[in-house]
Automatic annotation (TrEMBL):
InterPro entries (alphabetical): Glyas_Bleomycin-R_OHBP_Dase
Keyword field contains Nucleus: no
One of the record's GO molecular function terms: dioxygenase activity
Keywords, comma-separated and alphabetical: Dioxygenase, Oxidoreductase
Name this polypeptide is given: Glyoxalase/bleomycin resistance/extradiol dioxygenase family protein
Native source organism of the sequence: Caenimonas koreensis DSM 17982
């Protein structure tokens, strides 16, 4: 069996959050989506469980971080091109997200930019060209 990853993030409003991520082109697995949690499909083996805060709280005894005030995680997704990075950021901004930083140029090797979603979670997007990677020392 191939290892999978499920990133769990607390959210405030299920309907708004699903609409936000659908506008970026993500889909949801209806088998694991209800009014408490939504299983967003990133790829065949990567999923984000968007859990309303009271439900998220049942998985931990620690307080749930307010991602608009603190950073608990930065999720980084690879992209197939610089254009895809820019397109996803533009869609996020149009759907109510924010871009807290300017795009980052790392020569021909890497281009990155990101956004924060409606709940303040940081999403980094990166295009990497392995053929332009700096030589190993």
């Amino acid at each position: 069996m191939t290892r999978q990853i499920f990133v769990n993030l607390p959210i405030k409003n299920m309907e708004r959050t699903q609409a936000f991520f659908k506008s970026l082109g993500f889909s949801f697995n209806p088998q694991f989506t209800n009014d408490k949690g939504a299983c967003m499909i990133v790829s065949d083996n990567i999923f984000v469980m968007l859990l309303v805060e009271p439900f998220f709280q049942t998985f931990t005894k620690k307080p749930v971080a307010d991602a608009t005030k603190t950073t608990e995680v930065l999720v980084c997704l690879s992209c197939e091109s610089r254009a895809e990075v820019d397109s996803l950021v533009a869609k996020a901004l149009a759907a109510g997200g924010a871009a807290p930083n300017a795009p980052q140029e790392h020569g021909d090797f890497m281009y990155a930019h990101g956004f924060t979603d409606l709940d303040g979670h940081g999403w980094e997007l990166a295009y990497m060209n392995p053929n332009a990677a700096p030589p190993q020392a």
